[in-house]
Amino acid sequence: MSEGVEWGLHCCVLLGWLDDQAPVSIRRLAAWFELPQEYLKKRLQALSRAGILTSSPGARGGWSLARPPERITTMEVVAALEDGLDLFSCTEVRQHGVGSEGAGSEFARPCGISAVMRRAELAWRRELAAHTIADLMARSPEGAERARRNYQRMAS
Fold first, then answer.
1. Cα–Cα distance between 44 and 63 in angstroms, integer?
2. CA dihedral 12, 138, 123, 72 (to 10 degrees)
3. How far is CA 64 from CA 31, 57, 61, 128, 156, in A?
4. Computed from CA positions of residues 45, 47, 48, 49, in that sequence, does the dihedral angle turn out positive or negative?
5. Residue 82 contacts residue 8 (beta carbons within 8 Å)
6. C-beta neighbour count of 75 within 10 angstroms
7. How far is CA 20 from CA 10, 16, 17, 133, 152, in A?
8. How far apart are CA 30 and CA 28, in angstroms?
9. Whole-angstrom Cα distance, residue 105 to residue 146?
């Protein structure tokens, strides 16, 4: 997974905490995380295309969550930023080379490695789908107050 997933999740949590200040400008978000605006903008645009964030144009425009944080799963954010993300891609390497000679119908079904990797990926996806942005916000309740305080300080 790319580092952009971490930034995207943190932006969603921050926007959830700053909901009463929304929309939050890309300039402020980039300054908050000390990131180049263009880098962050690309991640936020992907989240917007996925219906996770919304943007409003203009001098007072910026970014906000498109839905309540309890209706945005971590899996949605990951999928939006990783463009579908398949963790394991079985290329049937067992069907190449000397080891494949004389296999006959043995290759008619996926191998055990592929089956195990698919089950692991499904468990991973289920776990991410079971947690929302609101859950992440609740895991650091002190962070909400710190975020609001620091955001107000930035505005001054």
1. 8
2. -40
3. 16, 12, 10, 22, 21
4. positive
5. no
6. 18
7. 17, 9, 8, 16, 12
8. 5
9. 62
What pairs with residue 24 in β-bridges?
Answer: 63
The answer to whether residues 66 and 54 touch, using CB atoms and an 8 Å cutoff, is yes
Q: Which 3 state secondary structure label does DSSP give 64?
A: strand
Instruction: Give the pLDDT score at 65.
Output: 98
CA separation for the pair 91, 154 (Å, rounded): 51
Max Cα–Cα distance, the chain, nearest Å:
75
Q: In a structure prediction context, what are the per-residue pLDDT tens digits for the chain, which is 156 residues long? A: 788 999 999 999 999 999 999 999 999 999 999 999 999 999 999 999 999 999 999 888 999 999 999 999 999 999 999 876 666 676 666 666 676 666 676 766 767 888 898 899 899 999 999 999 999 999 987 888 888 888 888 876
- The residue assigned the tokens 């494949």 is 100
Tokens of 85: 């993300």
Return the structure tokens found at 41.
Answer: 């903008």
Q: Give the length of the chain.
A: 156
- Asked if residue 147 lies in contact with residue 22, where contact means CB atoms within 8 angstroms, the answer is no
**Structure token digits, residue 3:** 């580092």
